[in-house]
């Protein structure tokens, strides 16, 4: 079967699909990943065909932007995506796997081409009374309030996609159809969505409709022969386990401030540290701190005592997989949600909102997390839970059922 996985956003929104795609390839499928050009190397390293989607994600900034500006930027982004999505599908596709960012476009392509589609989401987007929508943070509004807020969040997403959907349907020769009407069609049909995160973080809500399943995390593809750099191995061997500090694709332009905070906090807490450069541009020198570039979390995280990160879905899961406690510093989007989930598990300190991050607050959190073993025990328990989940395997089974 020729499978096209369509995903867009930051690295964390795309990388998990490389592992999923590799698993589908091993099962005998021809797999292509459609995403923006930045992530072509990730697709090719995993042995997947790469198909280009235009544009790039909205700005990955350090602070909260004006909501109206974010909606305008997001609308422009998905409109650009829509213009190139049809070309990617037309190059030969038997099944579409759609991320949360591409589903609202993919539904219309599926209608026009007759190609079946399955959702492959990294976040829970369906309204539930169990928790508020991921885009609004971690504070519960109660069952009724959570469901109401969840429906409102979907309507806001419909608005973001309105122009893109209108243009796409016109280009495909389809009659006009508002995004919310297509979404409701899919909901009434119990359109299947596989969610690639752990039930340790989000148990399946009892009020979800049929067709919504949580299968376990999809891990980014890593070359099995890849090793940590010699300089990093030497640093790890030279003293106690260090703290990892990194913000992934977040906080561009904040490198100088974040680096200073990180080093001051580490030294105040009496800890060694590894700073990952990331989009922020973290960097520091010294016997007690090392700066590294892009490295597989699966190789590095089991070697550290704690992780300080932006609480993106992928980094959150990677820390738990390694059984390592966290200090979450959420920046934007779904990150406060995952930070809250980590803290509720007992595997992390209370989140430190990015604008409130100081060396003093970070040092205090680090001191707490390395000296109170309850955090490590909770992270280790979560690691055992994740080890029993096979997200990619469950997705392969779901595709096999559809093919059969």
From TrEMBL:
Keywords: Transferase. GO terms for molecular function: hexosyltransferase activity; UDP-glycosyltransferase activity. It holds the Pfam family Glyco_transf_28. InterPro entries: EryCIII-like_C (IPR010610), Glycosyltransferase_28 (IPR050426), GlycoTrans_28_N (IPR004276), UDP_glucos_trans (IPR002213). Residues 286-399 form the Erythromycin biosynthesis protein CIII-like C-terminal domain. The keyword Transferase applies. Residues 3-73 form the Glycosyltransferase family 28 N-terminal domain. Gene3D superfamilies: Glycogen Phosphorylase B. One of its GO terms (biological process) is carbohydrate metabolic process. SUPFAM superfamilies: UDP-Glycosyltransferase/glycogen phosphorylase. This is Putative UDP-glucose:sterol glucosyltransferase. It comes from Streptomyces lincolnensis.
């Amino acid at each position: 079967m020729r499978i096209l996985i369509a995903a867009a956003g930051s690295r964390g929104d795309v990388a998990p699909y490389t592992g999923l795609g590799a698993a589908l390839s091993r099962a005998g499928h021809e797999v292509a990943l459609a995403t923006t050009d930045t992530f072509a190397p990730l697709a090719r390293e995993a042995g997947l065909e790469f198909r280009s989607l235009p544009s790039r994600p909205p700005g990955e900034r350090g602070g909260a932007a004006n909501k109206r500006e974010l909606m305008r930027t997001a609308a422009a982004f998905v409109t650009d995506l829509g213009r190139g999505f049809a070309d990617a599908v037309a190059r030969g596709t038997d099944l579409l796997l759609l991320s949360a960012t591409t589903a609202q476009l993919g539904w219309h392509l599926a209608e026009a081409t007759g190609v079946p589609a399955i959702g492959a989401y990294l976040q829970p987007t369906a309204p539930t009374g169990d928790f508020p929508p991921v885009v609004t943070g971690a504070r519960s509004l109660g069952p009724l309030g959570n469901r109401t807020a969840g429906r409102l969040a979907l309507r806001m997403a419909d608005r973001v996609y309105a122009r893109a959907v209108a243009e796409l349907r016109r280009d495909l020769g389809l009659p006009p159809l508002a995004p919310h009407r297509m979404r409701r069609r899919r909901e009434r049909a119990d359109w299947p969505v596989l969610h690639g995160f752990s039930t340790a973080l989000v148990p399946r809500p009892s009020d979800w409709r049929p067709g919504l399943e949580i299968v376990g995390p999809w891990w980014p593809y890593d070359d099995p022969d890849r090793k940590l750099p010699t300089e990093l191995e030497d640093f790890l061997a030279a003293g106690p386990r260090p703290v990892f500090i990194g913000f992934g694709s977040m906080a561009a332009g904040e490198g100088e401030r974040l680096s200073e905070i990180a080093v001051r906090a580490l030294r105040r807490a009496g800890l060694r540290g590894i700073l990952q450069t990331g989009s922020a541009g973290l960097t520091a020198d010294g016997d007690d701190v090392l700066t590294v570039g892009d490295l597989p979390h699966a190789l590095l995280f089991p070697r550290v005592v704690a992780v300080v990160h932006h609480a993106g879905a992928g980094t959150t899961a990677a820390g738990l997989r390694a059984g390592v406690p966290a200090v979450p510093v959420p920046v934007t989007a779904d990150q406060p949600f995952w930070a809250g989930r980590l803290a509720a598990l007992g595997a992390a300190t209370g989140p430190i909102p990015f604008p409130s991050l100081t060396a003093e607050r970070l040092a205090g959190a680090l001191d707490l997390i390395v000296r109170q073993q309850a955090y490590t025990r909770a992270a280790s328990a979560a690691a055992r839970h994740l080890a029993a989940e096979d997200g990619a395997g469950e997705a392969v089974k779901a595709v096999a059922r559809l093919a059969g």
